[in-house]
């Protein structure tokens, strides 16, 4: 097979490419230039879009003796990921840019170009598994639960999975570093990228302030009493506890959490933790990693990249996904992805549009 290996400059993608070479595939490495003005070095840049990363990817390709190219996707990345991220926060939602990047860039723009160039598959260093099932290829969790990235891949369709390869899905991260060292890859001890790749210093609120400007407003409690102020609703997410700038303590002295964000009137509502609990959500724009479910299905649902999947029932009707949790959940925010699992298998995902709590639900 002709395999295009997406090489970020990190240890995972380098070892993934190496395994494809060992498997006898005709491998070509490609580094995605996603920033129009990348930082020169990782110092102060916490993501995977620096010039240093590009050079590390090229050196790894040289060790593996495979062709290597850099594809400039900065304009597409800005439009589909960065601008979407800013717009979602401006609307009071909490997006996950990694999912959007996988959906729009790595397994849309890159995969489409790869297939047009005659490649059979795209390989990445994600920790997940693709398994042949009765209805085609299935997406499953990785063997290493601490590194599992199936959540951020839950946006992939069956057609995309047919051309996706994740060679690290059956491996522990510590073993990957040992393997990289054995192979003579200089990235063996390189720190993992973290946070949001296009926010170099990790200051999300500062980045959004620079994009959207200050939009001061009030922090209120559930009775409408003003208890603080803020510089922009984009600096908050549902369930947030720290950095609320509340000047008036709660009557019971307990911490308060963000319950609602209203960009229209620039209001952030806070309240007690138990008021965060929801037992139902509605998701839109569902994407299925195989055949779409028919009617109500018992499943597990995960709404954070590093959260746990919890028992739920999902009802699919007219491209609308309704998920009811067996036990009320906290911190479920519009804009997040809800990913459904059947055991280790990913069923599919949707974007959370709204949440609710039935009156009969326990606190």
TrEMBL record:
The active site consists of 101 (nucleophile), 197 (cysteine persulfide intermediate)
Pfam families, sorted: tRNA_Me_trans, tRNA_Me_trans_C, tRNA_Me_trans_M
User: In this protein, which residues make up the domain named tRNA-specific 2-thiouridylase MnmA-like central?
Assistant: 207-271
- Specify the signal sequence span: none
* GO BP terms: tRNA wobble position uridine thiolation
> At what residues does the UniProt record annotate the site feature described as Interaction with tRNA?
126, 336
InterPro entries assigned: MnmA-like (IPR004506), MnmA-like_C (IPR046885), MnmA-like_central (IPR046884), MnmA-like_central_sf (IPR023382), Rossmann-like_a/b/a_fold (IPR014729)
Principal localization reads cytoplasm
Annotated compartments: Cytoplasm
* Residues annotated as domain tRNA-specific 2-thiouridylase MnmA-like C-terminal: 279-352
What broad class of enzyme is this? transferase
Q: Where does ATP bind?
A: 6-13, 32, 125
According to UniProt, the reaction catalysed is:
S-sulfanyl-L-cysteinyl-[protein] + uridine(34) in tRNA + AH2 + ATP = 2-thiouridine(34) in tRNA + L-cysteinyl-[protein] + A + AMP + diphosphate + H(+)
Family per similarity comment: Belongs to the MnmA/TRMU family.
Q: Output the NCBIfam families linked to this UniProt entry.
A: PRK00143.1, trmU
- Biological function: Catalyzes the 2-thiolation of uridine at the wobble position (U34) of tRNA, leading to the formation of s(2)U34.
Name the chain's protein. Answer: tRNA-specific 2-thiouridylase MnmA
């Amino acid at each position: 097979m002709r395999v295009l290996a997406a090489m970020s400059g990190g240890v995972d993608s380098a070892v993934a490419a190496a395994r494809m070479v060992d498997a006898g595939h005709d491998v070509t490495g490609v580094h995605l230039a996603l920033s129009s003005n990348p930082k020169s070095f990782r110092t102060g840049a916490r993501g995977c879009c620096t010039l240093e990363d590009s050079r590390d990817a090229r050196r790894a390709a040289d060790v593996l003796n495979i062709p290597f190219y850099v594809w400039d996707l900065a304009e597409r990345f800005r439009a589909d990921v960065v601008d979407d991220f800013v717009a979602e926060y401006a609307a009071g939602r909490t997006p996950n840019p990694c999912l959007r990047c996988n959906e729009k860039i790595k397994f849309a723009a890159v995969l489409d170009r790869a297939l047009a160039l005659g490649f059979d598959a795209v390989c990445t260093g994600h920790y997940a598994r693709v398994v042949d099932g009765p209805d085609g290829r299935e997406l499953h969790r990785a063997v290493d639960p601490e590194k599992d990235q199936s959540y951020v891949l839950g946006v992939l369709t069956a057609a995309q999975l047919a051309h996706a390869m994740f060679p690290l899905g059956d491996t522990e991260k510590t073993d990957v570093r040992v393997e990289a060292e054995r192979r003579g890859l200089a990235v063996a001890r390189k720190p993992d990228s973290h946070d949001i790749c296009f926010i170099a210093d990790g200051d999300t609120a500062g980045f959004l302030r620079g994009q959207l400007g200050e939009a001061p407003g009030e922090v209120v409690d559930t009775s409408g009493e003003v208890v603080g102020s803020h510089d922009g609703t984009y600096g908050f997410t549902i369930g947030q506890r720290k950095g609320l700038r509340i000047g008036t303590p709660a009557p019971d002295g307990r911490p308060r959490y963000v319950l609602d964000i209203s960009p229209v009137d620039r209001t952030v509502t806070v309240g007690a933790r138990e008021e965060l609990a929801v037992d139902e959500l509605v998701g839109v724009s569902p994407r299925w990693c195989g055949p779409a479910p028919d009617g109500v299905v018992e499943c597990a649902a995960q709404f954070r990249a590093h959260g746990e999947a919890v028992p739920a029932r999902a009802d699919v009707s007219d491209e609308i996904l309704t998920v009811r949790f067996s036990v009320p959940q906290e911190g479920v925010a519009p804009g997040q992805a809800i990913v459904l699992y059947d055991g280790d298998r990913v069923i599919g995902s949707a974007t959370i549009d709204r949440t609710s709590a039935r009156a009969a639900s326990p606190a």
